[in-house]
Amino acid sequence: MRNFNISFFLSLILFPLLLGNCQDEDFTTDSSYKLTLSVDTLSFDTIFSESLTATKRIMVYNNNNKSIRIDKIYHESSVKCFQINVNGKSGSTFNGIELSAKDSMYIFVQARAEKSGKEAPFYVLDSLVFLYNGNRQDVKLTAYGQDAYRLKGFTIEKDTLWTGAKPFLIFDTLTVAEGATLTLQPGTKLYFHNNAHLQIKGRIIVNGDFVKAPVLFRGDRLDYIYDNILYDKIVGQWEGISITKESTGNIFNGCIIRSCNTALRIDSAEIDQANRRATLSNSWIHNTKGVALKATNANIYAYNTIISNALNANLLLQGGEYLFNHCSIIGYPRNSRFNSSVVLSNYELHTAEEALIPLQKADFNNCIIMGTYKEEIKLSGDKEKGPFLYSFRNCLLKSADLESENASSDTLQEGDDQHPFVDNQWNGNPGFVLVDWDNYEFDFRLDSTSAAIGKADKSLYKQFPECRTDIYGEDRASRDSSDIGASLWIKEEAATDEKK
Fold it and tell me: The whole model's pTM is what?
């Protein structure tokens, strides 16, 4: 009898709860109860045709004390660009979506634009519409699409000219075959997929205009890794450019190479004094996961070029002959570094191979070599393996040890070729316009506090007339004095007048 009374008593308590669970939730039909959407516009930056973007999300909140049944969620436009996922289901129209009181849900959106057949970017506009209780709310969906030449495992086997009409989207390895020349006109843009690589067995000629229409080498991710940081600002987005032993006579003028693993690797080959392996001018190599410029037994000339923010060395030169005039070699990356900005050696480091053709010459004139390390120059040569010659003249250098060594060495006459350090500025303030680690923003032009101002050797321009103008086209020779580095300091009043 007692068991019966207990069971009866429990049934009286649980029956209303069970009955409540069997009934519908309290859905309101009152139009004054509205949803809250996390954004009113969802925008995708330029997207390549036929490529699916990363996912963005819309949050839908029901902050009311009653549930809402959304009659319909749908695309307003017939343009098939945006792909929608609601509650784990993909589609273009969703009916009868229920959202409980004080609850929320995710809507995920991706974009994939069809080819337009046009060279210019095109604008795509759509709306994601929500209909419920006589209410209409929407989120605008926008994107700029861009047709691109898509190349996968492609080899250029004959002389080829590329222009900036449409970008080139590169997967796997793009190879310039031996005997072929690839010429890139101003404004040409090459976007490389993850691990993609440019291999030059023949020759490349880059004819960019750094100020007006640079040639661009970068990764293909156009979205953000953080709310305010683009993937393009993160190292290791693609592999880089390699020049094989067969290749010579390469020219990189007016280009930007950024955010890869090794920006430019030049393999060992016998040196031809009459034909350089590569010439770099009026360019910027920036933000690499490994070495920015790695050369083994090569002869290279670089002028008016910025090489910056490699996590390994900016320059790793092993054997060969090198000349750098008016270059800025700078190690201020946001991430931790593990080498000096400039490393010179007359043998190949970290290998068990025999000694290389010795480092005959590495000359730096009117250059900035600065960074966050105490010692931004590492001399790793072994004179027992052969000659190890280098010189730094009229440069701004960061190295406490070398400054001390230079000051205590026997004084030689200025201009003596045997003296490795002549008229340099040591450990001064480089005075760069912008070093913003939080936002990955860098501008390595000089400001008024720079120790590089007025310290360059103007006589250099007689021997190297191509250095008369800086990376931005400003005339060095017309001034009473010139500045060290790739760019001149522009007085504030002069810059203000130009803007007016």
Answer: 0.87
